Structures are given as structure tokens and as C-alpha cells.
Amino acid sequence: MVGFVVRLLFLMSLFCGGLSCYKCFIDPGDSVRLCWGHILSEHNIRNIDACFKTLDRIFNNNPNVIMAGKVGRGYDTVLKEIMRSEIMHIVEEFDHHLNNDTVYEVRLKAAADTFITMASGLPRASGCFPPCGFQAHGTVYNCMTCQYDSCEFPLDCPLQEITVEENNRNQMWCHVPFVLPSDIQIVWRYAEIKTMLIDRFKEVTAGTDKLFSIPSARLEHTGTYQCEIFSRERSLVRIYYHLTVVANEEVGHAELQDVFDQALLPAGQFRVLPTLPPFSLLRLPSDVLLTVSLTSLILLLFITIGVLYWWPSKKMDRETEQEQERHRYRFQFA
């Protein structure tokens, strides 16, 4: 009797060495009760070891069972209910009763087929969206580990480059392609240099606003902006934007250089300029250019008014001088 118990415990340890959908939801003690009366038809002897091997083949090493168990988050409890409803009534029926291996084969195979059909109808995970972020809705239940597998992406997203002209508006969005919880908190941070090191950033705002806007960019706005999304104090993702603000003088120089480069092209050749998309807004001139143009127009207006005022008076003076000269000649001849 002692030898039988030792052998039974040894077989249970082997059976519990690996995991599967069956082993995730069925207790080892229930498996022993299920296999207690397993009879090898060929030799007409009771063999629990052969029963465990049958369970491994039908459930634990069956890729269809494992694939059916890849459900979305929260549905592992439904898997457990399906598995136990198919197995436990067989356990109660077979407990301390002898049955041939052929009976076990038929009953367990039918239970596995029912589990595959019902589990395959459960919602699947929404999928993993690279390249970053903890994606709870993308996790998949794994019958080989009896737990959910995460998407295994890093929290830090790749650094994105943004260039904006001075005095122009710039917006940065804390957006991710995967589903976020409803209780998220968003923290925006700023670093004066181009970096992704956490300790180099200083907190700017905290709340639920996904948009960070700079109405009029200045040179001192150049740097790295980090957006971090939390849920229940757990970090879900960190997004980085490196902003470069270009001075208006540099933009003007670049435009003049472009004109000069086009002037050096051979005769008859012109650089193909990118076409604007439909309904796009034309870029307005810089503030400096507008100021110079307005000042020139005002100066030209004053000059025109001065000329219009000076020219008639000058003409009248000339006519007066001519009239006096005629009177002088008349006086001399008289």
C-alpha cells in the first residue's frame, strides 16, 4: 500500500511538471480520481500512468486545445468553467470505478472537442501594436503558463523629430494606437537637451490633457518633450518629441539660398517644387517681412502726397516769374 501511494505521488509530480489548459483548471487530486479505475484492455490491468499519458495527449499536448485557450483578458474564468463542466462530471462518474482505456479515450476526446468549440467562440485579444507601451487589452491567455502574456514592448517609444519656424504654433499629441483604460493620468515633462533619460526631465503639467500646445514658438522652446500615461499609478507608455525651433533669419537665408541655387541651373531647367495639397493654406510671410513692406508702402504714400503738393506750387511760382519778366520788358521798351 505504501509503495502504491509513493508511485501515485511520483506520477502526480510528473503530471504537474508542465502546464496546459487542463492542468490550469483541474486539480491534481481530481485527476487522480479520474484515472483511478483506468484499465489497460490489452493486459486487463489498472494503470494510472497510462491514463495520465492519455490526458497529456488529448489535452496538454493538443495544439488545438492550446490555441482555443488564447482568449482576451478576463476570459480565463470562462475557460475554467468550460473545462470543469466537461471534466468534473466524468470524474464523479469514474471515481473508484473501473473502466477500459477505450472508454476513457472516447469520453476524454469528446470533452476536448467540446472545450475547443466553446473556447474558440470566446473573444480574442485585440492584438499588440508596436513599437511601445504596456497594452493590457493586447495580452493573451497562455495555457502553457496559466497566465496572460503581455505584448512585451518597451514603455519608451522612439524619439520623434519636429521642426517649427519661430513664432509659429506647434502641437504635440499624447496618442497611442491601442486601447487605454478609462482612468488614465497624463504627465508632460520637458528637457532642454535632446535626451530620453528620465532624470533629465522636469514636470510641466499633469492631468488628462493629451494635447500640449505652444501658441507661438520661441528659440527657448527647443528641447525634448515627454508624455507619460499612467493608470492606477502604473506607467503604460512614454512618448518623446524633440522640438527644434528655427529662427526667422535662418529661414529667410535658406529661401535666398534656394533662389540662388535655382539661378545657377542651366537655361531651361527649373527645380520641380512640391505641389500643395487641395484646400491647403498658403504659408504667410514672416512678421519682419510684413513690417518692412507696410513701412515701405507708407513711405511711398507720403512721397507721392509730397510730390502732388509740391508740383502745382512749383508750377505757379514759375508762371509768376514769367509774368513778372514780361512786365519788366514792357517797362523797358516803354
UniProtKB/TrEMBL annotation:
Taxonomically, the superkingdom here is Eukaryota
Tell me one GO biological process term. Answer: fusion of sperm to egg plasma membrane involved in single fertilization
- Alphabetically ordered keywords of this record: Membrane, Signal, Transmembrane, Transmembrane helix
Q: Which InterPro entries match?
A: Ig-like_dom, Ig-like_dom_sf, Ig-like_fold, SPACA6
Q: Which residues form the signal peptide?
A: 1-20
The membrane spanning regions, by residue number, are 288-311
The organism named in the record is Tachysurus vachellii (Darkbarbel catfish)
Q: What's the name of the protein?
A: Ig-like domain-containing protein
**Residue intervals of the Ig-like domain:** 154-237
- Which PROSITE patterns would you find in this protein's record? IG_LIKE, PROKAR_LIPOPROTEIN
